[in-house]
Amino acid sequence: MKVEVLTAASELGLCGWDELLGSADFGLSQTWLSVLEGVVAVRSGVSAPGVGAAAVAGVPSAGVGAAAVAEVPSPGVGAAAVAGVPSAGVGAAAVAGVPSAGVGAAEDSGGSSPRSGTAVRPFYLIAQDGHSRTVAGLAAHLMTRDAPAWDFYRLDRVFRRLAAMPDRDERGFVGVRGTEPLVLMPHLLLGGRQTAHGRMLLAPWLSGDARRQAVRAVLGRVEELGTQIGARALAFMFVDEDDPLRGELTDRGYLSFLHASAGIMDIDFDSFNGYLSRFSAHRRQRIRQELRSFREAGVVFSHHPLGEVIEQITPLGMALESRYGAEGDTVAAFQASLRVVSDAVGDCTVVLTAEQGGQIRGYVIATRWRDALILRSAGFDYDFKGRLPLYYGVAFYHAVEYALACGLRRIYYGIESAAAKASRGCRIVDQYGMVYGLDAEARTALSQVLHGKIAAAQPR
């Protein structure tokens, strides 16, 4: 089995990468990977591989246009922001999963030194069988200490954050006593720059020995790549609890920890009343009271193309960032990121809004991808909001009605605020980190931080 390493998303179109994608995988599509490179280019003032100066100027490049995509989710964009609580250090520019203004460096596919001024370098591994069929794919991004302060992607920050939590033992942590996290930098982030459902892409018809052979070939090649470019460790940050890859990684020597939990709404009903029927009588009454409170406040729900409302939603998105302590964008940087997204995938990106008095008072940016709606970043007018449950209104009740109208079968909510999501109909899927040291010192550091024993999931 042959495994090739590419260094720009623009190269993925000729190898069948997108044919490996499932309903949760827009964040791993060629289109979105190109958007990520394009936003970094806009923020650094240079052209990213495969995106080009046209995208920097606000014009989508060939192969990244709206016609090239059937839908869109959000990798790396404050999955938590959809819960109304953005991830610390992952600002609203995170709408494209990239650093806030003033923190990032341009993506660079050249050179081999991880400290050569390139903070986040992309690599895409493609496995082909003896018949030249693409059977597996893996996105990898080199994370250095110069990378943005991504609390959900960088091992040094992830470990310090989780090891300080009161439930660290249940998550699989012994603790951080010294410089162990720094020993693991730089590392390769595997499975995509998205805060949920990261994985190795595999052809759906693969099974048995052929599947195992493909997984082993890609994992072996990424270990070689990591060593060649000076990485100290490999890390999948968000592997679904039921993904068979977890067992395969464990067999290969990866250590595991419970990183986060993601919400997924299955649209197994055909009307809003059907949605309500899944709740207890008490919960249904509560939801009806919330809907009545919107009517009494004069709130109406609508939706708009992203490109038409960028100026209106900017202060709301930045207010959410400021409220929860995320790194602040400038207005120009915030809007530039949104314009790259709109230019590239505007046909499948929608802004779900709560409006009153002719003004947008709350929003969620959402994406249609195959049979799913992926919720991304959010923002609210907190001066107006008061005690109104605008988050539930726009991210659940309005999103459910929009998904029903579009014939979609599930909504992806990202991580964080699991209790709130479960209370409005989501099933919760635990997301596991899986890490592997590429040298003896890194493996020792990992064994000192992680005990590898994860507490059994509690009934929800």
Describe the protein.
Strands 1, 2, 3, 4, 5, 6, 7, 8, 9, 10, 11, 12 and 13 form a 13-stranded mixed beta sheet that branches. It contains 16 helices and 13 strands. About 16% of the residues have low confidence. Helices cover 35% and strands 22% of the residues. The chain has a domain of 164 residues: 3-Layer(aba) Sandwich (Aminopeptidase). The termini are far apart. It is α+β, with helices and mostly antiparallel strands. α1 packs antiparallel against α12 and α11 packs across α12. β2 and β3 form a beta hairpin.
In short:
With 460 residues, the chain is an alpha+beta fold. The protein has 16 helices and 13 strands. It has a domain at 264-427: Gcn5-related N-acetyltransferase (GNAT) (Aminopeptidase, 3-Layer(aba) Sandwich), CATH 3.40.630.
Query: What is the overall silhouette?
Result: globular
Amount of helix: 25-40%
Question: H/E element string?
Answer: EHHHEEHHHEEHEHEHHEHHEEEHHEHEH
Largest sheet descriptor? 13 strands, mixed
Average of pLDDT? 83
The CATH topology annotation of the domain at 264-427 reads as Aminopeptidase
CATH superfamily of the domain at 264-427: Gcn5-related N-acetyltransferase (GNAT)
Structural class: alpha+beta
- Count of extended strands: 13
Residue windows where pLDDT falls under 50 for at least 5 positions: 46-117
Q: How big is the Rg? A: 21 Å
Distance between the termini: 43 Å
Assess the beta-strand content as a share of residues.
Answer: 15-25%
What would you say the CATH architecture of the domain at 264-427 is? 3-Layer(aba) Sandwich
CATH class bucket of the domain at 264-427? Alpha Beta
The number of helical runs is 16
